[in-house]
Design goal:
The structure is a homodimer of 176-residue chains.
Chain A lengths: L1 H7 L30 H19 L7 H12 L5 H8 L3 H13 L3 E5 L7 E5 L1 H21 L5 H18 L6
Antiparallel strand pairs in A: 1-2
Helix pairs in contact in A: 2-6, 3-4, 3-6
Chain A binds a DNA duplex (23 and 23 nucleotides) through helix 5.
DNA sequence: TATTGTTATACTCTATAACTATA
DNA sequence: TATAGTTATAGAGTATAACAATA
């Protein structure tokens, strides 16, 4: 408090003052009403923010969430069919075609001919795909640590468990 | 058990047996690897399932999540500006225009002229909008109860709190 | 007859640039 | 010069129908 007025009294010293003018948006903060207590709303907000962080982190690698998860899935299930991979990721088959086209175009994954069924492909990672996935793993781990910072290990585990239960609750069950 | 074989012995009674043939997809269950432990992945899965349940529940009312939240927000902030409403909901202004167009076309909300600023609108609910919102509140409450069933009140509260913290972690902070 | 992968297509959500009319 | 609202547009993500090749 005293130092400030003292410094102001020596105007010709070699100092800089950087002022960032944030344009005053003058936005009224609105009352969100019951929205924050609606789970679907909170889920949506969190998911959008988390994907934005993921995309920013993986911009260098040019990997979107679906592409990253596809590479992970192929690595964990070498030789699997396209339809099984799409099903596991919750992606419709026609949409997964375009995803695989792109991964193949970038030489990250490969559609090898099926061993027994000539209709089906056996999905594989290329060497470049394995290398990129290794780099992505690091970046995504950092991303995951960033979005869960301040949460204890047990809180994070509980969050994952609660999300799984909510997903289960919201998923229509088919008769066995 | 006995009754069944007994009934089979009387083939000409006026009974029906309805058999639903579920096509055996013969899908291999793939190994999801580290995906289930990634928060972003769990968030996305849960959010998709929850929105699907919301949309199924609100199909009768023809209300999508963004429309419902907009009606709620307008009701809680009668006379608010369009830009403030969009900002509060995390919707880009140009996209909120189309949303309001649709609500106005269905006579659920209204763009009244601004009191002091002739550039701005004052958003209001119509009577029909208030009535529909009241019905939607019931449907969405049931939806919310459905997706959180099996969770205790404290678990649900904790889930909301953890989601808010994750959203905050993932949101880039601007310097004040 | 059913499954695998594919094409074509459509609809929603999201994002950006550029315009107008007011301030 | 900046803000409120708008238009136009583009890009993802998601969904379905219909087809060819194979089982």
């Amino acid at each position: 408090m005293h130092s400030h007025s003292h410094e102001r009294a020596r105007p010709f010293e070699n100092r800089f003052e950087i002022v960032i003018m944030v344009p005053n948006k003058s936005r009224e903060k609105l009352d969100l009403g019951p929205l924050p207590s609606l789970l679907g709303y909170a889920l949506r907000r969190a998911q959008l923010a988390v994907f934005a962080d993921f995309n920013a982190a993986c911009e260098k690698l040019q990997l979107r969430p679906a592409q990253f998860s596809a590479l992970l899935l192929i690595e964990a299930n070498l030789g699997c069919k396209q339809s099984d991979a799409a099903e596991a990721l919750g992606i419709m088959q026609p949409n997964f075609v375009a995803l695989m086209d792109e991964l193949e175009r970038r030489d990250l994954a490969r559609r090898a001919p099926g061993k027994t069924d000539r209709r089906a492909y056996a999905l594989e990672l290329t060497d470049a795909g394995g290398t990129l996935l290794e780099r992505a793993r690091t970046v995504v781990s950092e991303h995951d640590a960033r979005i869960t910072r301040g949460l204890s290990a047990s809180e994070t585990a509980l969050l994952l468990q609660l999300l799984a239960r909510v997903e289960q609750n919201a998923t229509p069950q088919v008769a066995p």
